[in-house]
Amino acid sequence: MPLPEIAVEVAQDPAVLREFIRLPWRIYRGDPYWVPPLLIDVEKLLDRKRHPFHRHAEVEYFVARRAATARANQVPGSHSEGRPGEVIGRIAAIVNHEHNRVHQEQTGFFGFFESIDDHRVTAALLNAAASWLRERGMERMRGPANFSSNEEWGLLIDGFDSSPMVMMTYNPRYYADHLERCGLAKAKDVVAYSLGVANLPERLMATLRRIHLQSKVTVRKLNMKRFDAEVGIVRTLYNQAWERNWGFVPMTEAEIDHMARELKPVVDPDLVLFAEVEGKPIGFALALPNAYQALRKANGRLLPFGLIRILLESRRIRHLRVLTLGVLPQYRNLGADALLYLGLCDSAAAKGYVGSELSWILEDNLLMRRAIERFGARVYKSYRLYERPLARH
User: Fold this and answer.
1) Strand-strand pairing, 6-10 and 57-66
2) Which of 274, 291, 322, 357 is least buried, going by the fewest C-beta atoms within 10 A?
3) Residues 283, 241: contact at Cβ < 8 Å?
4) Do the domains at 6-191 and 195-385 have one common CATH topology?
5) Which residues pair with residue 386 across a beta bridge?
């Protein structure tokens, strides 16, 4: 049945923002692979006063409603007016000033996109975001980004037969068609690899252990007693090792500290490794247990029983995600990346993990991809960043 006209409004009122946050529960109802986020975490992420991303960015949130729903803060160009109706889509428009400073461009982003299966809703949301970005001098719109490459990035386009790993995205198949019908085109793909942590190629493992014995690179685990100092090392390595990557935005000190506080309760020091040469850190790797397996049980809430369900399910987690692994450019010919992978595999296998996801990796980062594939990893999910120019009116 054709939809009535669509109204898009800014989610300024706290009640409307709550509708923005809760829309996914409707979009994914009955989907066995969707993992409900914790509501408290989403609220904190979107809060301009609480999350450090907002210190160097401008963000606006929009919702689309069914039927006659315009309010006082309705976006110009919406079609109808009247009483509030049902929310059927949402989007965030984002100006990341740090991204534009680093890349010397005027790129705006869209994120937190959700819509029912009607491309007109998607079009209305994208047009609202584009208009907002255009007013702020942006020349192109790219996404989805929630909020940047340092958080959740990209639209799932292949690999819909399993749930996402921790801090990775998931969406209905029809989203790609919607975006493309609205004039967005591929900007870049990123991929996720699946890798077992046991029964790795024996010839490769023997070679790596021989390199380990002969190399001047040493690998050590995170020292929780020096956690703050270790976070400082991570900040330096992360911002230097990835600075040449497409779309990379360095994390601010406040963002690193915020992420460290969020991860400290769940981080396993055996799965955070540093590569060093003569005591100097040259690279690091971070893997996390796949907490999303446990989050599904909570259905977005810690109380009254969500926390208990999470704790019970967390004991059954046997998969992990390698979030980051990088080496400073001047040390990449020493085999440090392979030794970090070897260390993670050894630690994970000793702890009873059976599988891992290595994500995400730029499609054209062939050096990293070939190194991973030598371990026997295979691509099992693909994600896409879309963009379109913002023509002047």
Assistant:
1) antiparallel
2) 291
3) yes
4) yes
5) 143, 186
Tokens for 305?
């029983």
343-352 confidence digits (pLDDT tens): 998 899 999 9
Structure tokens at 289: 């247990």
With a CB cutoff of 8 Å and minimum separation 6, the contacts of 24 are: 34, 36, 37, 114
Return the SS3 of 189: strand
CATH value of 195-385 in 3.90.180.10, 3.40.630.30, 3.30.1330.10, 3.20.20.10 = 3.40.630.30
The owner of tokens 């002969």 is 214
Q: Which residues pair with 288 in a beta bridge?
A: 321
Structural tokens at position 8: 């898009």
Helix axes 336-350, 366-373, angle to 10 degrees: 40
CA distances from 148 to 76, 107, 157 (A): 27, 12, 19
Run means of pLDDT, 10 residues per run, the chain, 393 residues:
74 95 96 94 94 97 78 47 72 97 96 96 97 97 96 97 95 98 98 86 72 81 95 93 88 92 89 95 94 77 61 77 93 88 90 94 92 89 98 67
Domain coordinates of the chain in residue numbers? Answer: 6-191, 195-385
Place of tokens 């975001």: 129
Burial class from Cβ neighbours inside 10 Å (0-12, 13-18, 19+) for residue 216 reads exposed
Give 74's DSSP letter: B
Q: Write down the architecture of domain 6-191 according to CATH.
A: 3-Layer(aba) Sandwich (3.40)
The angle formed by the CA atoms of residues 52, 221 and 210, to the nearest 5 degrees, is: 130
